[in-house]
Amino acid sequence: MLRTIPLIWLSILQFALLVKSVEAVDSLGVGFRGSIARWNQGVAEARFVAIRADSIWTWNVQPNSNLAPGTVERDGYVLMPGADEGVATFIEGAEVMFDGADSTAFNPDDFADRFGVERTSPLYIDLGATFRVDRIRLYPRQDADHKTLFPRSFSLSTNGGIDQEREIEEGNLLERRFESVFNYYTSNPNREPVLERRFESRYVRFIRIQVRDNQPWEIAELQVFSDGTGITGEYTSIPILAARGPRPLWGRVRYEGGDMTDLPVTVQTRTGPDASPQLYYRYTGVGGDREQVSAAEYTRLDSIEQGPILRNPDWSSWETVTDGRVRSPSNNPFIQFRLQISGPGTVIRRLAIEYLNPPIADGLDAEIAPVVVEAGQQTDFVVSLQTHMRVWRTDGSLLPNADTGFQSLRIQTTARIDAIDRVLVDDREVEFTATYDPVEGTGIRLRRTILQDGTFIQIFLRGAVFRDATRFDVQASDRRLVEGELLTVHQSAREEDVDPLSLGGSLVVRIASEEGRLPLLQSVSPSSPIISPNGDGINDRFELRYALLKLTDAAPSYLNIYALDGRLVRQIEGGLQLNGDQIYRWDGFDAQGDRLTPGLYIYRLSIHTDEGVVQENGVIGVAY
User: Fold this and answer.
1) DSSP character for 529?
2) Is residue 21 over pLDDT 50?
3) In 196-235, which positions are buried (b, 16+ CB within 10 angstroms) versus exposed (e)?
4) How many CB atoms lie within 10 A of CB 585?
5) Using CA atoms, how far apart are residues 439 and 450, in angstroms rounded to an integer?
6) How far lies 96's CA from each of 219, 223, 230, in Å?
7) Count of CA atoms in the C-beta half-sphere (13 A) of 37
8) Any bridge partners for residue 548, and if so which?
């Protein structure tokens, strides 16, 4: 039964809640006082990013740049197995191989007495980070006394620090799999003092040099060249607890006082009631039985005992931060964030996730119907919303830290909303005003504040959907007095089946396909069949626009440019892409930064999904 409240007292309460004073916006995160404070302490998992206590970043890689001189700065190293088989020794002083000076050189004989290494001991070099590499060059000193000391019978191979599944390999460096670049034998030795080879671009972090004969040798410079494409870095934090209040209203994500939208960074969050977003299981040895263990206990188990690692069902799924705002459910005291950094040379020093207390509602559930429509056709939709409010005690008094309720709703979507026709509250039509803003979304203001638990709201609207998997983000809005300023805050609803008369329980609308199945790649549109990259501002670059549909997770994408003989001349990495409109731009230059000669070239767009690689090919001409 719904609780009845005298209208006079309710209106006074509404006014009090409307201007509820909040001392300040609280925030948590990393890199500032009151937070985890250190990036290297707050990391649960990281890949392709550099981490210090005060910052994380991606390395600023330029096309055709020599990566070797930055090895020391990136905390890279050189090691060789010593006299004890399988035990590696760090070789201090070996960095002369990439000091940029042809007058200095690494010679294993100079380190034999100190480190117990031999000429045939394998040499391992860690660049300190993983890069995309397509060329390696090495040579001895070029004066008369040393230019013949180049390796003759030897191999040089690389390892990216990741395997084909892009996961960190198990085992130590000496046990990793390496891919060959140079390979010379006694029967067919190397005869060139300056040795250089180009190859198809690959991930490289570790380099192994294995000299097979016992002849003297040295390396004055080892040069490792980037192909110019960046690698998307990832950083996942540990779960973080909101210090003030058990039911935070999650707000904006900022870095150093600015918005994350200013950086080439995708931010995702998920929230939960505890510090365990994943559940770890141990096989007991009795059939397929398993028992739950802690993360620390799981790491100590033998591989045969390690069971599955599953997502905690009490935690939300990863949601992408849009317009700088957290989309994960509020009221959960723990939050975890994940950063995907696509731009080279991107540095983040301080990151904060803002939140307020108390929330607008203890929970909001919503769905939309229908969930399958014709593309571009105006459709009648019904958005259904049900509230879960924590406001009153059983004796009718107001709870401490009570939900503030709401008088406004907002719908943000990429669909076109033409009109809000009517609004029902508990099956009764109510008065409202509507605003339509392409940036802020469609706003709906009611005459009275919604404070009642279990209130059922239906919004009847007309609109059109143009892209598959279009999401309707339904939010309740409230005004808070924060540090003397009246601010509008929003709380997003969860997807739930709240209307028994409709099917599903989703806020995502799909586009019907005549064949019953939608393509993943759609609306591929090149800007022009010919470009003239001469800097006159007219048709200087090639643009390829396309739309991604029905992706269940972010997918890596690439645009490759090939000469007609099949030679790869440029690869552009697009990072991880989600559903929606996408664009690639190519300036007409190759991986070395040189302008291509006139002629025809082939472009190939590749999207790497869980179900395989989806490709689109075409021809582009270059003319001057």
Assistant:
1) S
2) no
3) eeeeebebbbbbbbbbbbeeebbbbbbbbbbbbbbbbbbb
4) 12
5) 25
6) 9, 12, 27
7) 2
8) 521, 580
Q: What is the arithmetic mean of pLDDT over 579-594?
A: 82
- Assess whether 483 and 550 both reside in one domain: no
Assess whether the previous peptide bond of 370 is cis (omega < 30° from 0): yes
Q: How far apart are CA 164 and CA 125, in angstroms?
A: 21
Q: CA torsion sign, 498 to 501 to 506 to 507? A: negative
Compute the C-alpha angle 427/429/434, nearest 5°.
125
The CA–CA distances, whole Å, from 565 to 2, 533, 561, 599 equal: 75, 22, 12, 12
**What is the rounded distance in angstroms from the CA atom of residue 410 to the CA atom of residue 442?**
6
Task: Please provide the distance, in angstroms rounded to a whole number, between the alpha carbons at the two ends of the chain.
Answer: 78
Structure token pair of residue 452 = 């009642």
Average pLDDT of 118-141? 93
Bond prior to 69 in cis (omega within 30° of 0): no
Read out DSSP for 111-174? GHHHH---TTS-EEEEEEEEEEEEEEEEE---STTTTT-S-SSEEEEEE-SB-TTSSBPSS-GG
Alpha helices in 531-591 (DSSP H): none
Q: Could you give the CA distance from residue 30 to residue 41 in angstroms, rounded to a whole number? A: 9
State how far the Cα of 159 lies from the Cα of 165, in Å rounded to an integer. 14
Which amino acid belongs to residue 146? H
Across the range 236-261, mean pLDDT stands at 83
The CATH code of the domain that includes 430 is 2.60.40.1510
* Residue 7 domain flag: no
- Is there a single domain that holds both residue 388 and residue 441? yes
The pair of three-digit structure tokens given for residue 194, joined into one six-digit string? 């300056």
Eight-state DSSP code of residue 532: -
CA 500 to chain CA centroid, nearest Å: 37
529 and 501 in a common domain: no
Do 242 and 248 contact (CB within 8 A), yes or no? yes
Q: Which domain holds residue 304?
A: 278-311
**Do 396 and 327 reside in the same domain of the chain?**
no
Split into its structural domains, the chain has a count of 5
State the CB neighbour count (10 A cutoff) for residue 485. 7
Residue 15's pLDDT is 34
Stronger pLDDT, 13 or 241, i.e. the higher one: 241
Q: What token pair was written down for 111? A: 């380190």
Measured CA angle at 164 (ends 55, 308), to 5 deg: 80
For 572-595, what is the mean pLDDT?
82
The top-scoring range by mean pLDDT among 143-157, 278-292, 545-559 is 143-157
Which one, of 77, 113, 73, 114, lies nearest residue 95 by Cα? 77
DSSP SS3 for 533: coil
